[in-house]
Design a protein that fits this description.
By secondary structure, the protein is an alpha/beta fold. It has 13 helices and 13 strands. 43% of the residues lie in helices and 17% in strands. The radius of gyration is 19 Å and the shape is globular. It starts with a strand and ends with a helix.
């Protein structure tokens, strides 16, 4: 199984204190992850402070670092490590410019960018960013139209498109991505997203779910891909889990439940996940328990424990968990 780490690009206040990360930490952590044998580093995408974060940290604004800029620095400072978006929020980005940025980073990194796209966890951010568009816009429709346009931009010499949300006329976009096929992943875990990933994704990056539900959706993804004439094994199954590792399972659970990540989970309760299962369904536990969980995830068809989120109160604690997990899961 592959393993990768989520850098704290836009997690201040969401699951970390304010302030938390310094700009130099991103490249330093990317280089450490490459040294430790991780497959990739990822970043999340926010532009606006969430309402619940404002309530938790009155008078403090989180530092949200632009995702693709951070990843470009990380790619430039490494040689084999891949970089990915978990997730880039397509409805809040122009599809042409996102495609241009992605193709450029992919070329400059010699094919090491994975572009995973989603609609965004917080509609309130979208409403703050586009108050005139938000009342009538359906982000799922924007996602489908934007992905279709980007796929054409990545492969066709010239593109003309006139849709509900986006339009271009006789446009050329060069260079195309280095990687062929380009790593365009679909993020999210509802049934609509599973269908979208089966139809067009080279990877599927859902959030954690109870394992029985995750196993059902993996099977559905593969069945739908086959029905659509695609090779199911060509779609990388890469759920995003959180990690808390400690000497005992009890200590790991205590640290996890006291972390800011739990408040983040509660703020996303609308996703329908059973929060009582979050400890058992994530990579939380002692080293032996972590290894058992990895074996269980492999058995249900997980290819990649992707963009692992690490609750911590400081970058020193974050780094310690990154190193401990590598020794547990990656080092033979």
């Amino acid at each position: 199984m592959k393993f990768s780490i989520s850098l704290p690009t836009c997690f201040e206040g969401v699951m970390y204190p304010i302030p938390f990360v310094e700009p130099a930490d991103f490249v330093r952590m990317a280089q450490l992850c490459e040294k430790l044998g991780y497959h990739s580093v990822w970043g999340n995408d926010h532009i606006q402070t969430q309402d619940y974060v404002r309530d938790l940290f009155p008078g403090k604004a989180p530092n949200f670092y632009e995702l693709l800029t951070v990843l470009s620095f990380c790619a430039a400072a490494t040689t084999k490590l891949e970089v990915g978006t978990a997730l880039a929020v397509l409805p809040m980005r122009d599809p042409f410019w996102l495609a241009k940025q992605a193709a450029t980073i992919d070329q400059l990194s010699n094919g090491r960018l994975i572009l995973a796209l989603g609609i965004g966890a917080y509609r309130e951010e979208f409403a703050a960013w586009a108050p005139r568009l938000a009342p009538k816009a359906r982000r799922g429709e924007m996602m489908d139209e934007g992905v279709a346009l980007m796929r054409r931009l990545f492969t066709e010499p010239r593109v003309t498109h006139a849709g509900k949300y986006y339009a271009v006329r006789d446009i050329e976009m060069y260079p195309k991505p280095k990687r062929d096929p380009f790593a365009l992943w679909i993020g999210g875990h509802n049934m609509e997203v599973v269908e979208r990933a089966a139809r067009v994704g080279t990877g599927w990056l859902p959030g954690w779910r109870p394992w029985s539900e995750l196993a059902e959706r993996i099977k559905l993804l593969k069945d739908r891909a086959h029905a659509l004439g695609r090779d199911p094994n060509a779609i990388e199954v890469a759920p995003q889990f959180s990690v808390t590792i400690a000497k005992t399972a009890e200590e790991a659970e205590r640290r996890y439940m006291e972390s800011g990540l739990v408040a983040h989970r509660k703020s996303l309760a609308y996703t329908g996940r059973d929060l009582s299962k979050q400890v058992v369904a994530n990579l939380v536990g002692s080293p032996d328990m972590i290894r058992e969980k990895i074996a269980g995830l492999t058995a249900i068809g997980v290819d990649h424990a992707c963009a692992l989120m690490i609750p911590a109160d400081s970058m020193a604690e974050f780094e310690d968990q990154v190193e401990w997990f590598a020794k547990t899961a990656i080092t033979p």
